[in-house]
Design goal:
This protein is mostly helical and 146 residues long. It has a domain of 98 residues. 71% of the residues lie in helices and 0% in strands. It has 10 helices and no strands. Helix 5 packs across helix 8. The radius of gyration is 19 Å and the shape is elongated. The C terminus is likely disordered.
C-alpha cells in the first residue's frame, strides 16, 4: 500500500521526487537485501544433510532446547536469520506448528536482549548516533533500569 501511495504521489507531482528519494535510507535497504542473499547462500552451502542430522541431536522437539537455540542465534546474527535458517529443522519435527510458535516467541523476545538481537535495534542505534546519542552493545534491559 505504501508503495502504491508513494508512486501516486510521485506521479501527481504533489511531492518532488528528489525529496522522496532523499528520505529513503538506502543503506538500510541494501542491508536487508544483503541479509536475504546471505541467508539463501547459507541454506544452500551450510545446511547439508549431515548438518541437519547433527542438529537433530539437539532435541529441538523440547521447548527449552529450541528456545535456547533460537535465543542464542538471534543475538549472534539478529533475529531474522535464525528463523529462516531453522526452517529445515522445524519442518522435520513431530509438531512443527508448536515449534514455529516457540521460534516466533523466542526470536521476538531475544531480539530485545541486545542491540544486535534485532535490526530494529540497529536502526534505533544508528538514528540515535546521528542525533549525538551513544548507545552501547550491552544488554538493553539492564541499561533501561538505570
Amino acid at each position: 500500500m505504501a508503495i502504491v501511495v508513494g508512486g501516486m504521489l510521485l506521479l501527481t507531482c504533489r511531492v518532488r521526487s528528489e525529496r522522496v528519494y532523499a528520505q529513503i535510507d538506502w543503506s538500510l535497504l541494501l542491508m536487508f537485501a544483503r541479509l536475504f542473499v546471505i541467508v539463501a547462500g547459507a541454506e544452500r552451502s551450510l545446511l547439508s544433510g549431515d548438518v541437519v542430522a547433527a542438529v537433530g541431536c539437539l532435541r529441538l522437539d523440547h521447548i527449552p532446547a529450541l528456545t535456547a537455540l533460537t535465543a542464542v542465534l538471534s543475538n549472534l546474527v539478529s533475529n531474522i536469520l535464525p528463523v529462516l535458517v531453522l526452517r529445515p529443522f522445524i519442518d522435520g519435527l513431530s509438531d512443527p506448528q508448536r515449534a514455529w510458535l516457540v521460534v516466533a516467541i523466542a526470536s521476538t523476545l531475544a531480539g530485545n536482549l541486545t542491540v544486535l538481537g534485532s535490526i530494529a535495534n540497529l536502526i534505533v542505534v544508528q538514528r540515535a548516533a546521528a542525533s549525538g546519542v551513544a548507545i552501547g552493545y550491552g544488554i538493553t534491559a539492564a541499561s533501561a533500569c538505570r
